[in-house]
Amino acid sequence: MSKKIRKNSSKPDAPEAARTATAGRAKSARNADPSSSLAASEKSKSGSAKSRPESQGTDLAEGSRAPSFNLPREDGTRVSLADFAGRRLVIFFYPRAGTPGCTREAMDFTRLAKEFAACGTTVLGVSADPVKTQDSFRTKHKLSIPLISDEKHDMLEAYGAWGEKSMYGRVFLGILRSTVLVNADGRIARIWRRVKVDGHAEEVLAAARDL
């Protein structure tokens, strides 16, 4: 009589392998260091916060030292804060060259340029527009004030003029219309946030005269 020989296998059957793997994962989870999970959670939160850049100059206050800058103007030459040492300086930050509100604001400051000069005050306009765009803007509207190009937003952030904006329910980062008046000693004398164009240049001129 022939005998059937049953071969032994070193591999467990499929159901048994699945149960073993599941048990192993559960044991690993129980033995895991809870601090590592917490660290991962905090790291995730930190990364999320860093993904939303905010204005670096929101703590800029009246009486503080004006942040330095060195940027190109519309004619290609460079302008720095040191150029205006001993003089009062008005810096108005506008969202975009050529738009209606920004055009009116720039023209208002140009209209009052002689009055600002009479009280020892220079006026600068700043936006993130390229130099060529600033040049076209100044030429088209016959603006007498220098226009600074800050494409990398360094000055805008330093002066708190870069941050979150909203329009039609959409939130985005952009230039916040604002103005800063700098004393002859290089300190911030006045700050205007959420500027409304109408009558703003006249208000700034009155403040410059009072210094």
From TrEMBL:
Top-level EC class as recorded in UniProt: oxidoreductase
Assigned keywords, A-Z: Antioxidant, Disulfide bond, Oxidoreductase, Peroxidase, Redox-active center
Signal peptide, first to last residue: none
GO function terms (MF aspect): thioredoxin peroxidase activity
Superkingdom of source: Bacteria
GO biological process: cell redox homeostasis; cellular response to oxidative stress
Region Disordered: start-end pairs: 1-73
Job description of the protein: Thiol-specific peroxidase that catalyzes the reduction of hydrogen peroxide and organic hydroperoxides to water and alcohols, respectively. Plays a role in cell protection against oxidative stress by detoxifying peroxides and as sensor of hydrogen peroxide-mediated signaling events.
Quaternary structure and partners: Monomer.
Name of the featured protein: thioredoxin-dependent peroxiredoxin
Organism of derivation: Nitrobacter hamburgensis (strain DSM 10229 / NCIMB 13809 / X14)
Organism ancestry: Bacteria, Pseudomonadati, Pseudomonadota, Alphaproteobacteria, Hyphomicrobiales
